[in-house]
Amino acid sequence: IDSVHVRGDGFVLPTALGLELTPAEQASFDVSFRPAKSGRFDGRFIVTSSDLPADRALVLIGDGLAPLARVSPLPEVGVNFDLHEIGQQATREVTILNQGRADLHITAVTVADQGSQGFSAVVLDAPLLVLPGDRHVVVVHFAPTYEGRALGSLVIDTNDPELRRLEVLLR
Known about the structure:
By secondary structure, this protein is mostly beta strands. 0% of the residues lie in helices and 46% in strands.
């Protein structure tokens, strides 16, 4: 055998190998599948040998499972607290959804605002686990400390490979 290797995103053979086999001898190879994102992946396990008229290939198929973090309301719409009197508290909810096929890990939920504008969030200790198809509600409070427009964001850090950080506008 001149070489053994794999082709295709997500498929890994520890090393491309060349080896000699005696008649009736067998060899085993461990192929790993480590997808970087969700979806179907196709690959090939290829054996090349000068003793064969053509390369031999086995089809490899893998299905990558990943979390898919989404929030409601949508980040670009944000959370609107309307007008509130100074010292009075308003409460809204932001729902974190896992629309993927793997566990969603929420590693941090924080409020970022410009100065002390009165936004806060009630969050259980991170990390949080949101199973596929499930949701977690974060309660956001606004208690203005001065007159005028207040802006901030709810920042959610996740293990979603395509969206590590979600930011929901607070106003």
